[in-house]
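Limitations
The structure tokens in this dataset are predictions for the assembled complex, not deposited experimental models. Users should treat interface geometry with appropriate caution, especially where small molecules or nucleic acid strands are included. An illustrative entry is reproduced here so readers can see what is and is not provided.
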Amino acid sequence: MGLLTVSEKKGLEFKSDEVTSTNSQTEENIVYDTKDLNLWYGKDHALKNINLSIYEKEVTAIIGPSGCGKSTYIKTLNRMVQLVPIVRISGDIRYRGRNILDKSFQVEDLRTRVGMVFQKPNPFPKSIYDNVAYGPRIHGIRNKKILDEIVERSLRGAAIWDEVKDRLTENAYGLSGGQQQRLCIARCLAIEPDVILMDEPTSALDPKSTLKVEELIQELKKDYSIIIVTHNMQQAARISDKTAFFLNGEVVEFDHTDTIFSNPSDKRTEDYITGRFG
Ligand SMILES: Nc1ncnc2c1ncn2[C@@H]1O[C@H](COP(=O)(O)OP(=O)(O)OP(=O)(O)O)[C@@H](O)[C@H]1O
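Predicted assembly:
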């Protein structure tokens, strides 16, 4: 048992062969399907009739002005938003065909399949090694050799291995902000997720670290589905395949990123991307 990898430990709920590796857009490779989603914080109607199909192994950017519901939407995808007591939700969010809003859906299943990276890097006050090994250990992996392999693979996957390989036992707080963010991405990769949610992952980083994380996202989409909230329209244009433009809690337009930025169909999208508001 001690020799199982994280994906084996996750059990039979989601078998990897359910996940196709092609990029063709069929129902089978929709990773998240949101149907008629509405969300209220008390009386504040924050998400209005959201319908979005997100495909695997793509980068999907969520853009829009402050307060339009971007973070709220991304936090519905791992049910984090339900930690807010006044939240009320209606509609469906299907992850790999199963409605995650259904009471019978175990949130733990979701958290092992969907990782999240936040605006501000949030490493644990532990060593670099222990940050990455944390998730696998929770899954019961104790074998040192396997943990070493996972830690190295995850840090390599997050393009930070060469910078930290000789200081794995040092506290993660000693890393720069950009390095901490890539460490947090490595911590996500260690649980072998299917999807990575990113809520403005570069907004606290300098331009050089931002570029590194953007390059990393391009690499990661070969293996993962990535949904990223960004304020930075150039960033959305550079790194995403699809873009959803949110305004006042609604999705105004959702299309291929090239189309959104070169030939949007809605005047409000055009006004936003040309800087007329927001
Ligand atoms: N915990 C909360 N309690 C009450 N209202 C909230 C809460 N979080 C968000 N809201 C409200 O929901 C709406 C959408 O907020 P959200 O943070 O999702 O927008 P956003 O597009 O991510 O904004 P920003 O770009 O500024 O981060 C706003 O009116 C906000 O005030």
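Some entries come with short summary sentences. For this one: The chain has one domain: 6-13+29-273.
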